[in-house]
């Protein structure tokens, strides 16, 4: 799958468009095809390590989570065998929390994660 990867702290040019391994959902996870995401101050502050104290939480040399992105809108592509709240094809939106990863084509999240079915209207 394609993803925007941040391998070191710095200006926007440190972001790389790369091919990475597609995640597979566990028994209690869903696989979401990300259709839209956003850039907010959390992501650019982590990417820049600004303020420097960001490194205390996200690693000194480079971001601990190389695929940033905290919010998304997308569609459930696959569900783990024990998932009951969602089904393939559900349109969802939400947050990845501190696991980040929305700057990619796919993201696995626990069924009880911070996301929900998009309202029809």
Number of self-contained structural domains: 1
Report the radius of gyration as a whole number of Å. Answer: 15 Å
- Parts with pLDDT < 50 across at least 5 consecutive residues: none
Largest sheet: 5 strands, antiparallel
Please state the second-level CATH architecture: Alpha-Beta Complex
CATH class: Alpha Beta
Task: Outline the structure in words.
This protein is mainly β. It has one domain: Quinone Oxidoreductase, Chain A, domain 1 (Alpha-Beta Complex). 11% of the residues lie in helices and 34% in strands. The protein contains 2 helices and 7 strands. It has a 5-stranded antiparallel β-sheet, with no helix packed on it. It has a two-stranded antiparallel sheet with strand order 1-2. The longest helix is centred in the middle third of the chain and has 8 residues, at 41-48. The protein is elongated and about 40 Å long. The N and C termini lie far apart (30 Å).
Describe this protein with a few key phrases.
121 residues, mainly beta, Quinone Oxidoreductase, Chain A, domain 1, 5-stranded antiparallel sheet, two-stranded antiparallel sheet, 2 helices, 7 strands, 11% helix
Secondary-structure topology with pairs:
Blueprint: E1 2-6, E2 15-19, E3 29-37, H1 41-48, H2 54-58, E4 71-79, E5 91-95, E6 106-110, E7 115-117
Antiparallel strand pairs: 1-2, 3-4, 3-6, 4-5, 5-7
